[in-house]
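Hey team,

Filing this mostly as a record. A colleague (T.K.) asked me to run one chain through the structure pipeline before their review meeting, and I want the input and output archived in the tracker in case anyone asks later how it was produced. No errors, nothing strange. Just documentation.

Input sequence:
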Amino acid sequence: MRRDINWTTRRDDGSRYEVRVTWFSGTFKIQFKERGADRWEYDRKPSRDDWETFLDSIERRYQRKTATLKEFEEAKRMFAAGMLDLPPEEEEG
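Output structure:
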């Protein structure tokens, strides 16, 4: 992948955080940075919305031929594994 994938997410309370995804050594590294923070976090787990945004971005890049099949398949694998780690969504009443 020739460049990073970046986006900003706004929470319900109005706070924001940045997400940066880089391709390094055959896998994606997902990093987070709270608004106003100096350093990127490497250990935080992505939310459901983060995983969906990441997969959507890499699918669009693959269709435009700016991401390889290997990158696309790794993203799908990481997405599936990441979704399994998330708690199930609560059903509304």
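Quick notes for T.K.: The chain has one domain: 5-85. The chain has a mean pLDDT of 89.
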